[in-house]
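for the writeup, i need someone to sanity check this before i put it in the appendix. the sequnce is what the collaborator sent (i think, or maybe the updated version? ugh). structure was predicted straight from it, no edits. if anything looks off just tell me and ill rerun, i have time this weekend
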Amino acid sequence: MAIASIFFETDFCGDIDDVGGLAIILARVHAKKCKLIGVNANSSNHYSASAIATMLGHCGVGSIPVGAYQGDDTPTGSAYTFSVTSRFGKPGDNRTKYPNGVANLRRVLNAQPEASVTLLSTGTLINLQGLMRSVGDEKCSLSGMQLITSKISSFVVMGGCYPSGQEWNFSNDPLSASYVIKNWPLSVPIWGVDFVLGASIVWTLPKGDVKANPFAYAYELFGGATRPAWDPLAALYAVGDYAHLFNVQGSNGTNMIDPTTGFNTWTSAARNYSYLGMATVPSAIATALNQLIAQTS
């Protein structure tokens, strides 16, 4: 069985769960159980991309392509991205040093085998909207939609509440969320991890050498002992070999997102959107999360 090749879309700024999600992926990369082929920062925080690149470099995989949303929105705050970049990264590094997120997606996807990519999103869908609207160019003749249908085999998204409700990742950019989910190709299945599922499981922020380890430093800067497992849960499902901890609560339905508020409503009307639940007790999933997240700290 082929291991997952993951492209990670993440806001990587407000909450610390993005760092936990990256830690899980990298733990499985080092165990040779999945590949990480690219990462995009989809927030407007100036240092999300540089913090990601810093952590990748610390783990010995600094050659993985990193991109960044380059919109001119008011920068999103973060307790850790600037400090992690300043202590462990390159002087003066920030999102302007990285390719546009859409360009990064197009380049990385174009280089992959057919139907080989697991797309994992734990932030806004702004870069994905840009990808879907993109057209072929001199570097890649395929449109964004053609790249999705030919290269991506599965889309795992942390967002929404099921069967209905409102959650940060969709409501922070409801236009992008609505466009992407409504127009996503039917041939590529979507797997949703929602707010309620993530809030039902907590993970422990590991302690480590904050002077030598950017993950440990980020956890200390954020503060607290535990957090809800929103992004780490989505990452745990995406890496592939922990899928047995999940079950399907709603299968092949339709998820409609209000483009003004981000409020979502899932129905059983036949489409390609499924959402996940737990196949075991929360403590078993929390144990798996904690074991993996601790490996980078």
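The chain has twelve helices and twelve strands. The chain has one domain: 4-296.
thx in advance!!
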